Structures are given as C-alpha cells and as structure tokens.
Amino acid sequence: MTMKIYARIRNLREDRDSTQAQVGAAINVPQRTYAYYESGQRMIPPHILCALADLYEVSVDFLLERTDNKKLNR
C-alpha cells in the first residue's frame, strides 16, 4: 500500500517560513513524527489533521486535497 504524500502541509509550512520542528511543537508532536506525516511515511491521525487545519486556518478537506478552497465553513 502506497502512502499519500501530503504536499499541502509542506507547502503551507514553507509559505510561513516555519521549520518542521516549529510546526511539530505547535501541534504537540516531535519533529520526526511530523516529518513522517509530511513525507507520507505515516498516515496523519484525525486529531492531527484538525490541529493542522486550525494552525493554518484552512479546512481539513483542503489539507487532504479534496478541495482547492482554503476557506473554512464556519
């Protein structure tokens, strides 16, 4: 089974000039774990997807490339 590479979380991180360690600290995971998520070596658990969506103020659907619309439906 091939894991999905989460390009959007990498792009969002790079757009903010943040390191993997900084994002990991913000969502309460070690840098190495975050790196595994970003590279697709580990699936991102739902609670981490929600934390990333909150951090970047985008929808989970945007992170998962189910939509190109960044807007949150609040």
Helical percentage: 55-70%
The number of domains: 1
The total strand number stands at: 0
The chain-level mean pLDDT equals: 90
Radius of gyration: 11 Å
The CATH topology annotation reads as 434 Repressor (Amino-terminal Domain)
The rounded distance between the terminal residues' Cα atoms is 35 Å
Strand content: under 5%
Q: What characteristics describe this protein?
A:
55% helix; 434 Repressor (Amino-terminal Domain); 0% strand; 74 residues
Task: Please provide a brief summary of the model.
This protein has 74 residues and is mainly alpha-helical. The chain has helices at residues 7-15, 20-27, 31-39, 46-56, 60-63.
Can you describe this structure?
- The protein has 74 residues and is mainly alpha-helical.
- The chain has one domain: lambda repressor-like DNA-binding domains (434 Repressor (Amino-terminal Domain)), CATH 1.10.260.
- Helix content is 55%, strand content 0%.
- The chain has 5 helices and no strands.
- The chain is globular, with a radius of gyration of 11 Å.
- The model has no long low-confidence stretch (mean pLDDT 90).
List the helices and strands and how they pair.
Elements: H1 7-15, H2 20-27, H3 31-39, H4 46-56, H5 60-63
Helix pairs in contact: 2-3
